[in-house]
Amino acid sequence: MKELLRHVPRQHTVDCEKCKDDDKKKCKECGCNKCGKKNNPETLLICDECQLNFHMKCVGLTELPEDDYYCTNCKREDTTIKPGDALINKKLKNAPSQNGNVKRDWGRGFACAGRSKTNDKVKKFFQGQIPGTQVGMTWFRRIQLAENGIHRPPVAGIHANEQVGAMSIVLNGGYEDDVDNGEEFMYTGSGGRDLDGNKRTNVQSFDQTLSKGNLGLAMNCDAEISQEGAEAKNWKKGLPVRVVRGSKLRKHSKYAPDDGFRYDGIYKVVKYYKEKGLSGFYVWRYVLRRDDESPAPWTKEGQKIKAERGWSVIYPEGYVPPPPKVKGKKRKLDKENLPANNSSAPKKRKFEISETLKKLTVKDKHNSKVWKEFLRKEFPSQQEFQDSLQETFSCSICMCLASEPRKLKCRHNMCKDCLNRLCKNGDDVAKICPLCREDIQGTESENEELREILNYVFPGYET
Questions:
Q1: pTM value?
Q2: For residue 289, which of 237, 361, 251, 354 has the smallest C-alpha distance?
Q3: What is the pLDDT of residues 251-298, one digit of tens each?
Q4: Which residue, among 122, 185, 180, has the nearest Cα to 148 in the 3D structure?
Q5: Which of the residues 65, 275, 322, 411 has an alpha carbon 20 to 30 A from that of 164?
Q6: Of 414, 397, 405, 384, which Cα lies nearest the Cα of 454?
């Protein structure tokens, strides 16, 4: 009896609680997780994540893997696109960009780029010419128009508001009903297209309505708003609309630029009306007429101004133009074996300062030494030239481009208003230049020559 009550230790512990270590019983816990069998233990693989067993035959392997093994439930695919790998996307497999035979420039990294800066000098709904912008200036990418405040929407053709009216429009061949005659053109309103699925454009599929941008553009007409349309009483009294033409319009109009997006000046709405378009649906039509003092870019006077001022297409910062196409058979060249004078390499751009501007700088005797050093520099683009000029002749107090600049003894620059505010302060405030601590009298005369130069490069910057 005492022997039966004595504790007898177990000789073999149970490793699997599910099958109790029964070799004849299938078990997916201690055997193969696929078939449940326990035979051929030498071919069992152990998943490094879940620690379950798998026969190599059951998972489709003929030999042991060199790296860690993960079962199908634990394996995570690496979706990182490595350099040189092709992007595989089922939705884009039939897109033109995935076709290797298409020789189209897809933006070189700038097609979907957002705004890198904004023009805070003018309000969002500012109507009229943007200070520092001149008729005939051309930008390479549309996003640059938004950065400079010329046309803020990155996609929409009309920048308008139902409360204040329209600020700007872009002509880029978007609608089949558009007619362009240069000084006057017929513009089609927005809407009437199904843009579901992140589409930027589509065929006309329903009627347009006089709302949103269409209503805003109609408000610029010197007439009462009407759902039947209206004609201006005096079209010149209408609100100004900035007009930009894009290079895609070149297929339909001889007034479009060859490249990029060109600012063509101020236009006014003459009339607007509703009619059936070429697609069979109702569209809103607007007749706009040019009302700008500056010559149109396609005229001889406009071309002369462009040549005098050395204007060229303004490229975004960091953009590298593609190398020119080489005729003949293509052959690969190693970088080490490339000739020194490689004609296919992209040439470095250089902005040429016009002779007219150089003559104006000679008149500015007060800053002759500054101009001598400034004109020695080389500028890759017109934008960098303007940025450097603005930095050189900025006011030492407000740090903006000097408005009605004064002739300071130290050769630094100061606005008329900034100088007056400085001199109106009490005796406890020293009358000195903030940059070099030179004394200021407060009676410094205006530098009319410098003011003429700054208005030449940045027209309307003092407004």
A1: 0.62
A2: 237
A3: 888 999 999 999 999 999 999 999 887 778 888 999 999 999 999 999
A4: 122
A5: 275
A6: 405
